[in-house]
Each structure stands twice: as structure tokens, then as C-alpha cells.
UniProtKB/TrEMBL annotation:
Organism: Candidatus Kinetoplastidibacterium stringomonadis TCC290E
A Pfam family that the UniProt record links to this protein: Aminotran_1_2
HAMAP family: HisC_aminotrans_2
Named cofactor requirement(s): pyridoxal 5'-phosphate
Pathways per UniProt: Amino-acid biosynthesis; L-histidine biosynthesis; L-histidine from 5-phospho-alpha-D-ribose 1-diphosphate: step 7/9
One GO term (biological process): L-histidine biosynthetic process
Signal sequence extent: none
Name listed for the protein in its UniProt record: Histidinol-phosphate aminotransferase
Recorded superkingdom: Bacteria
Length: 371
């Protein structure tokens, strides 16, 4: 074939494997001819309570205005976030979910002559975002399925520009406490300054118990190389609307906003996020449900003799052995969970904490399969 007429792609783009999302309910219904009412989805770490009633009310109120472009700068949402978290307005970047923020960070600071560090069992987007820029991966072995911060620090090389840390970690659910995070930030800042940026990805922080939760946004004043990312997709239930944000030093935020798409967060997502932040009761209810039902899932796994990892998010990673076969059997029974073989965890399944009846259905199905 004439090379002048063939499609050109960089090798690092050709090597990308697409992100594998949780199987949609409608797809399973078609595949196995199952009534949608009889399907339980525990695959994507969504909030089983849905969204706050305030969210549905505000969407109904403002839906007639969707013919207008959204506020490109998201002034109202950023204003409320700035006040809620006591951060400068100019330090906030809005994203089409926190995935968008992670992509923006990699697009801004990575190229073919740089590298990024992340744990071997961490969010798949870190790998994808690094690979899409042609940058080099430095994958650090985990400790007890979690982030090994000492090893991450010792893995920094002259071309390292970014370090991704999910806390709590996805897909394993592990957590690094405040003291260890601060010690790591001290070390990186003292030796490398702004030349190495640390991304603290806190998608599941709202599910932390009060004694573990800490104000990571306040750390940015002491560590100008820190970027903290949050999302409304998990505890707030806005996964379908796609809205997230980051807080960072103003200089970093300025560069992120230069490459941010002009209308990356739609109008309904912005007003829904504002409404979510105003409903503390819904968040408390979501956290309590998750805490109670997670204990039930733990107990079920213990009865079945299955190894699991204590989780600080709204999901649990469980070792079932032949995960591919068991996942297929669960699908046939109408239960969608998340295989994690793409994370090099072929014996494990990740199970989202659902409603009580959904969790009971899953436990019954898994028990039948393992008989």
C-alpha cells in the first residue's frame, strides 16, 4: 500500500486499549433476554439512591433553557465550590467529570519526553492519559493492593512530570492517611518543587468516615505542586451528567483552563452540581447506606470463605478464583459486577455497594454459583 495514502497514527496511539466500562443494563437484557426489572447493576460505583430530589427539581425548572450555551467559565458553580471548600475562585477548574480533568492535566504537562508515575493497581485513566500523550509509564508495585508512596517517591526520574494517586484507590478501595500523604508531599516538594506535580484523585472521598476525612484542599497553600481532583459522579449521583473539578495553584489552573474545551460542562450539570452541594441530608443518607450495606457484603464474603480487601469507597474487591467464569454466571442470573482482569487482577471482581435488595440478590446469586 502507498504509505502516502494510508492512515498515519503514532505508535503510542495504536497501542492504546479502549477503556472498558461496566456493562450497561440494556446490553445485558438484550444479550440474555432478561427483563430489565430483573437486572441488578453493581459494576460502576454509582450511587444506588440516585440523586437528590433538589437535583431533579432544578433540572425540571431549568430544562427549557438547554437551547442556550452553558456558562463557559461555570461562574456560579465555581463560586459555590470556592466558598464551600475555602479555596480561591481562580484555583478551580471544571471538568466533564474528573476524567476530563485528568486528561487536561496530562495534555498540559506530558509529552513524548516525559514520564508519569502511578500504582500498578490504580485507575485505568492514568495509563490511558499518559499513553495518549506519548509519555513514558512508570508503574510502581503496590503494597497490600494500595499505593506505595515511598516506592513512588524513589521511582521519580529526571523526566517525571506527574504522579497520580487515587485516594481512596480504585479498583482496590485502599486508603492512605493524611500523615503519609503530607510526608510524601513534603519530600516531593523539597526535592523537586513544581517540576513534579502530584495529582490527588479523591473521587470517593465523600464516603470516608469523619475520622479519616481531611481537608486536602488546604494543603495546596503549602504545596504549589499539588492538584486535588473531585467528582460529582459517585456520592452525589451525577454520573450521567458528567461534572468534576480540580483545585490547584493559580498558575497550574491558568494553564489547565487554556486547553480546557470552552463548554466542557453543560448547563444542567452545572445547576445539578450546585443543587447537590446544597443537600447535606442526601449525602449523609448515601454515606450511611453505603456503610451499613458494605458490612453486609463483608459478612457474606466471610461466610462464603472469600478473600476481600477492606474498602474505603462504595465498592469491594473480592477474590473469587475463576473470575471470568463466575462473572459470566452472574450475568446469566441478571447481576452485573466488574471484572478487573484489565488491572492484572484476573481472580478478582469489583462489586459496587447497592440498595439492600440489590445486595441481597447479588449475595444469593453468588452463593448459588459457589455451591
Amino acid at each position: 500500500m502507498d504509505s502516502k495514502k494510508s492512515l498515519y497514527l503514532p505508535d503510542y496511539i495504536k497501542a492504546i486499549s479502549p477503556y472498558q466500562a461496566g456493562k450497561p443494563i440494556e446490553e445485558l437484557a438484550r444479550e440474555f433476554d432478561i427483563d430489565i426489572k430483573n437486572i441488578v447493576k453493581l459494576a460502576s460505583n454509582e450511587n444506588p439512591l440516585g440523586v437528590s430530589r433538589r437535583v431533579t427539581n432544578v433540572i425540571e425548572k431549568y430544562s427549557s433553557g438547554i437551547f442556550r450555551y452553558p456558562d463557559s467559565n461555570g461562574f456560579n458553580l465555581k463560586d459555590i465550590l470556592a466558598k464551600k471548600y475555602n479555596v480561591p475562585f481562580e484555583s478551580i477548574t471544571l471538568g466533564n467529570g474528573s476524567n476530563d480533568i485528568l486528561e487536561m492535566i496530562s495534555m498540559t504537562f506530558l509529552d513524548r519526553n516525559s514520564s508519569a508515575i502511578y500504582s500498578e493497581y490504580s485507575f485505568a485513566v492514568y495509563k490511558l492519559a499518559t499513553q495518549a500523550r506519548g509519555a513514558r509509564h512508570i508503574i510502581v508495585p503496590s503494597v497490600n493492593y494500595g499505593n506505595n508512596l515511598d516506592a513512588m517517591f524513589n521511582s521519580i526520574e529526571p523526566d517525571t512530570r506527574l504522579i497520580f494517586i487515587a485516594n481512596p484507590n480504585n479498583p482496590t478501595g485502599t486508603f492512605v492517611d493524611k500523615e503519609k500523604i503530607i510526608n510524601f508531599l513534603d519530600n516531593v516538594w523539597e526535592k523537586y518543587g513544581k517540576s513534579v506535580l502530584v495529582i490527588l484523585d479523591e473521587a470517593y472521598s465523600e464516603y470516608l468516615d469523619d475520622d479519616l476525612y481531611f481537608d486536602s484542599f488546604s494543603l495546596i497553600k503549602h504545596y504549589p505542586n499539588l492538584i486535588v481532583c473531585r467528582t460529582f459522579s459517585k456520592a452525589y449521583g451525577l454520573a450521567g451528567l458528567r461534572v468534576g473539578f480540580s483545585v490547584a495553584d493559580k498558575d497550574i489552573t491558568d494553564f489547565l483552563n487554556r486547553i480546557r474545551q470552552p463548554f466542557n460542562v453543560n448547563s444542567l450539570a452545572q445547576i445539578a452540581a450546585i443543587a447537590s452541594l446544597e443537600d447535606d441530608e442526601f449525602l449523609k443518607k448515601s454515606r450511611l447506606l453505603n456503610k451499613v450495606e458494605k458490612k453486609k457484603i463483608y459478612k457474606a464474603f466471610e461466610i462464603l470463605g472469600l478473600e476481600y480487601i477492606k474498602s474505603y469507597g462504595n465498592f469491594v474487591l473480592v477474590r473469587v478464583g475463576d473470575a471470568r467464569s463466575i462473572n459470566y454466571s452472574l450475568l446469566r442470573l441478571g447481576v452485573i459486577v466488574r471484572p478487573v482482569d484489565s488491572y492484572d487482577l484476573p481472580e478478582w471482581l469489583r462489586v459496587t455497594i447497592g440498595l439492600p435488595e440489590d445486595n441481597d440478590f447479588f449475595i444469593k446469586a453468588l452463593s448459588e454459583i459457589l455451591k
